[in-house]
Amino acid sequence: MQYEKYMLNTNIPKYFKQRRQQLVDSIDEGVFVFPSVQEGKGAVINYLYRQDSSFYYLSGFDEADACIVIVKTKNQHKFIVFAQDRDPKKELWDGERYGLKRIKEIFSADEVYHLSDLEHELPKVLSGHQHVYYSYGKDEYFDKRVFTALENLRKVQGRSGKGLLTLKDPVEVLGELRVIKKAEEIEKIKHACKASVAGHNAILSQAKPGITERQVEAIFEYTIKMNGCSRTGYSSIVASGANATCLHYVRNSNELKAGDLCLVDAGGEHDYYSADITRTFPVSGKFSQEQKEIYEVVLKAQKATISALKPGVPYENNYKISCEVMTQGLIDLGILQGSLEENLEKMTIKKFFPHNIGHWLGVDIHDVGMYSDEKGNSRSLQDGMFLTVEPGLYFNPEDDSYPEQYKGIGVRIEDDILITADGHENLTAGVPKEVEEIEAIRQEAIK
Ligand code: GLY
Ligand code: MN
Ligand code: MN
């Protein structure tokens, strides 16, 4: 019988190299330095490792204790990897490593060094360049090492009269690269969305009064993993009743009670891309009158916002449309007083809708990429952008300024939208959100 060990991925796609080239093409001159996320130092237990998003996006290399350096050269770019070498004693505990020799070949690196050589080799790479792109202030340990490399370069420069390179944060250039999703990314995104849609549908059809929020979370995790996801993209929010008015409730310890709503914000991650979906449903098969009123205001805002999405439309439109629709909705319900204009002027909706309308979605849940230009003007949507639309209304039960019957209601509806050449595609539309659809599924579920 043949036993197989954990298999390293030796088939690294060409697109990582193309991304590195695009990165250097977007600057005039310079060297990029990206450290890895460190393995949980000092931890007794190993947690599933996740590489730094930009590091992974540019290399496909997922080992800890490493650093990648990308140098703009005259004609193309040079890719240098600092990493750990093979070590049978360490590998016994943590699994096989690529090792320096294999990294060169598998990851198409031009040069490979041991990480312990960083302070010694990096000055040589930086010498003669004017800019170093490095996200300082994120990781004290690597900051120290990169600054030591700069000190070493200063020593080498001696009394030449030359100053050190200018330090720049790579986040803006990277943001521009990452904000437009490429074909291979869209494929992974679609996989994550499909698995997450299955996860939310499993919850809708299986959650019963009396089970805990954590058990709801378990239904989701089970389903996404059965559908090819390695983990959730973030801690799942399963908030029943008034817990839904706490925006980042992740305790998930209460029991689902008939009569309450349950808000689930959860997404599965597939190969570094995650979905980010929220649905709110009645634990029993039916929304109460007030729950339904609020739910329909949020749904109307979400649908109006999504339907306007297409290339050329300013990003800020999303927030404007949702605020307008929800403000009018709350005026119609008698929760807000005065005209639409007066309320929009004072932005009274912020009390009920305190967060933003969404965010770019990609290798990070709140992905990099600017939302406005240098002058502060909202940027226009483009084919290949991927974003969430997630309006919500929340009525804090401890706030006495709300009409009594709405207290404790929290509703959010969130979908993941890809901007396409001729409009948009809702990649998470497979989870029902119409009142009648949800009620029908829920009534079946609690039978
Ligand atoms: N789940 C995090 C968010 O919706 O932004
Ligand atoms: Mn979310
Ligand atoms: Mn979101």
Characterization of this structure:
It contains 13 helices and 17 strands. The strands form five sheets. Strands 4-3-2-1-5-6 form a six-stranded mixed sheet, sandwiched between helices. A three-stranded antiparallel sheet has the order 7-10-11. Strands 8-9-12 form a three-stranded antiparallel sheet. The chain has 447 residues and is of the alpha+beta class. The chain is globular and about 75 Å long. It has helices spanning 15-25, 53-59, 88-94, 99-106, 118-126, 140-157, 171-179, 183-206, 213-226, 289-307, 317-332, 340-346, 435-445, and strands spanning 31-35, 67-72, 77-83, 111-114, 131-133, 166-168, 231-232, 237-240, 261-266, 268-270, 273-274, 277-282, 386-389, 392-394, 410-412, 415-420, 423-426. The mean pLDDT is 96. β2 and β3 form a beta hairpin. The protein binds glycine and manganese (II) ion (MN) (2 copies). One manganese (II) ion binds next to loops. Glycine binds at residues 234, 265, 276, 359, 365, 390, 414.
In short:
By secondary structure, this protein is an alpha+beta fold.
**Model regions low in confidence, pLDDT < 50 over at least 5 residues:** none
Strand order of the largest sheet: 4-3-2-1-5-6
Principal-axis shape equals globular
In this structure, how is the largest beta sheet organized? 6 strands, mixed
- Helix/strand class: alpha+beta
Distance between the termini: 48 Å
- The ordered string of helix (H) and strand (E) elements is HEHEEHHEHEHEHHHEEEEEEHHHEEEEEH
Estimate the strand proportion.
15-25%
Question: What is the helix fraction of residues, given as a range?
Answer: 25-40%
Output the radius of gyration. 25 Å
For the secondary structure, the number of strands is 17
